[in-house]
Design goal:
Length: about 425
């Protein structure tokens, strides 16, 4: 597979962009080799600047749940663009998006739009702190909630890929306010509440974790977090930036039947354009400016172009979409597990609807500790062998994979065929 143009572009990019990329995982640091520059997408396929085709299992890290170049979304954006790109003043489409979100996720009684998942979680934390008058926050090891200071403590995603424990530049005085607990460890969380319960403003959690591969929650763990925050007067924040509209229309909170106090959204809610949102209980949201004193604002927040992409995508998320992606994911994962076991390779997986994690060399993945013990070298070899067969997986053992409604049987079969060869080579190399 010839990737000469990508090679030239990364060299050029590195001269004016740090590491040549605008988000670290894209640089392939975790897996080695050069990143690929892309040009266009269609359905489940993406095409690089050298015109190589790949089956895409990233989908822009989630938003492309309907596949690339989804006609109605592109048409809606094009139509809006022909009217105006934005005003910095209210538009009706912002209400339509808010109404749609409230309809799909009833725990969100009131919603504020922002421009990224990072902004959503950062603002939700400030709101929880302002609302409770407390400073401490609780997060879980390996969960990623964007790159704001308070949340870059034992974080997942690129922080794990690059092997950074915590980021320099986060003041110790602030990091001290973030208490961390292993994911799925309710007992440790209870201990924390026993010691600091009256100082804890909020618990923020990925209700299905997707930034250390895909890790499923013990339902008792999630229900326990709900009881603890209720008992101690803290705010429960479900960070559904990844899982919202992905694992079920109403996100993980729909699956587990839990009503968090606040929810953060991103990724799919923007239909591929930069959008985030946070919302929840009306009595908490009413503390946000201009209703209340807790400040939060955004020049481009709710801009009509992004809203039109988000709204159109949400409007097309029919039950049929979820049935399709569930079937495709089940088939892919069953095939991968079978392919690995045929070659004597130990793997384990977690998946839910159109989101999956696949781990080499471990038998279960229930928290960061498990994932950290997985065989990264095997994953990296597998990744590159798949890439050379035209299958684009996330370039990191610590990222989840995503499937769209365009990943049909034929595409899954092509993927499994490529995986067969890749597993055989991995087995040989790591014998
Ligand atoms: C992607 C992600 C974020 C950050 O969103 P950005 O738009 O990248 O800022 C936050 N939380 C979770 C769970 C995510 O998956």
């Amino acid at each position: 597979m010839n990737r000469d143009k990508s090679k030239t572009l990364i060299e050029r990019a590195c001269k004016t962009i740090p590491g040549g990329v605008n988000s670290p995982v894209r640089a392939f640091k975790g897996v080695g080799g050069d990143p690929i520059f892309f040009e266009r997408g269609q359905g489940a396929y993406i095409y690089d600047v050298d015109d190589n085709a790949y089956i895409d299992y990233i989908g822009s890290w989630g938003p492309m749940i309907l596949g690339h170049n989804h006609r109605p979304t592109i048409d809606a954006v094009t139509e809006q663009a022909s009217k105006a790109l934005g005003f910095g003043a209210p538009t009706e489409i912002e209400i339509m998006v808010a109404e749609k979100i409230v309809e799909i996720m009833p725990s969100m009684e009131s919603v504020r739009m922002v421009n990224s998942g990072t902004e959503a979680t950062m603002s939700a934390i400030r709101l929880a702190r302002g609302f409770t008058g407390r400073d401490l926050i609780v997060k879980f090891e390996g969960c990623y909630h964007g790159h704001s200071d308070s949340l870059l403590v034992k974080a997942g995603s690129g922080v794990l890929t690059l092997g950074l424990p915590n980021s320099p530049g986060v003041p110790a005085a602030l990091a001290e306010k973030t208490l961390t607990v292993p994911y799925n460890d309710l007992e440790a969380t209870e201990q924390l509440f026993k010691a600091y319960g009256d100082q804890i403003a909020c618990v923020i959690v990925e209700p299905i974790a997707g930034n250390m591969g895909c890790i499923l929650p013990d339902p008792d763990f999630l229900h326990g977090l709900k009881s603890l925050t209720e008992k101690f007067g803290g705010v429960l924040i479900f960070d559904e930036v990844m899982t919202g509209f992905r694992v079920a229309p109403g996100g993980a909170q729909e699956i587990y039947g839990i009503r968090p106090d606040l929810t953060t959204l991103g990724k799919i809610v923007g239909g591929g354009l930069p959008v985030g949102a946070f919302g929840g209980r009306q009595d908490i949201m009413s503390h946000i400016a201009p209703l209340g004193p807790i400040y939060q604002a955004g020049t481009l927040s709710g801009n009509p172009l992004a809203m039109s992409a988000g709204l159109t995508t949400l409007n097309h998320l029919t039950p049929d979409v979820y049935t399709k992606i569930t079937k495709a994911t089940d088939k892919l994962i069953a095939g991968l597990v079978e392919g690995a076991s045929k070659n004597g390779i130990t793997v384990c997986e977690n998946h839910v609807c159109g989101m999956f994690g696949f781990f080499f060399g471990i038998e279960k993945a229930e928290n960061y500790q498990d994932v950290a013990a997985s065989n990264i070298a095997m994953f990296n070899d597998f990744f590159h062998m798949m890439l050379d067969s035209g299958i684009y997986l996330a370039p990191s053992a610590f990222e989840a994979g995503f499937i769209s409604a365009e990943h049909n049987d034929e595409i899954i079969n092509l993927t499994l065929k490529a995986a067969e060869g890749a597993f055989a080579l991995v087995a040989e190399k790591h014998a």
